[in-house]
Here is the input.
Amino acid sequence: MQRAADKLLDVSEIHPRPNLQLVRTTAEPQDKQFLLRGTSSYRRASLALFLSGFATFSLLYCVQPLMPIFAADFGVSPAASSLSLSLSTGFLAFAIFCAAAVSESFGRRSLMFVSLLGASLCTIACALVPSWHALLVIRALEGLLLGGVPAVAMAYLSEEIDPRGLGASMGLYIAGNAFGGMAGRVVTGTLAEFFSWRIALGALGALGLAAAIGFFLLLPASRNFAPRKGFDARFHVRAWAGHISNPALPLLFAIGFLAMGTFVTVYNYIGFRLVQPPYSLNQTELGLIFTVYLFGIAASWIAGMLGDRIGHFIVLPAGIAVAALGVAATLSSCLPLIVFGIVLLTSGFFVAHSVASALVGRLARGTKGHASALYLLSYYIGSSVAGSVGGYFWGADGWNAVVIFTLSLLALGMVAAFVAARVAKR
Here is the structure.
């Protein structure tokens, strides 16, 4: 008996690690308290993030249709009037990169609420300022504040939503972005035409306040996130470096850069084409093109659900392909077909963006806020760089050159999607 006992003791000493590791592996999932699809908490979180996306992008883009009015009222050039948007987006890109680090200490929910509240108050302040330079300073501050929402919102969803329902909730959040981007342009343009640009901005700022309050009341508190004490720069550098060294994530960052670059380039220069003969559209008719964002809203939501059901790496290249088909359709000289091409581009872009965002959250190993920040940094750099470079193609050979440029970007995005799928399976 003693020999048998000694023999059993020897066996337990030979294999101590696998037993301990097995206990840790089974214990970890039990510590996670995910919001499950179908529950009231899941629905509240999804609606709250929809409101945050709506508020963020309506406040950001609300000045775009007002630029001609700014030029007339303040006596500035058209190029100078564009600073009311470009300053906001520039500071937004910088702030997004920093927001993830700040939220690690400040908390997800609190940071997003303070950002939305501050940006809404900035928009109301813009409606009251007497000088052009004061308006620009406030718009720059507003972009800085808004940076506290996008990356942190994606991180919250990735941490709190059950992975089986993450695609649908991420899709709804992106749909809120699309709806906000459309509403910010259409609503302010309409109100400014019938009343004044000051009333338009004041009304949109009040709407942003209501959305911020609704967001705070609806969003459940974080269950799977614990704020870090103090600020450790080395921790954040290691976190960003870790995501960059992940084989799949840089490919998804590249897709964000390429897809957003294509989207912004087409929207930037299609107007130059359509105001010329034989179309000769006026500004109101051009503004109506923004209503195709409604297709982006539906596409984001559907893409999220399809990604959860059939696989995100199946839906991602499909979205890029639809966007490419839309760009190619704009080569037609038939106006209805051009508009249809813009619809396809918009739908395909939001499919790709929604799915890529969800994949970043699923594939990031910890510090998901840092991963989301890197994705959105690439996304907005794509908007700035490709949107500007596209102007050289427009000047060189008109719309044909713009189409060749954007299709090349989407071809690179398709390659990145297939490579990312193969890398992720490993």
Notes: The radius of gyration is 24 Å. The first helix runs from residue 2 to 14. The chain has a mean pLDDT of 80. The CA atoms of residues 107 and 134 lie 31 Å apart.
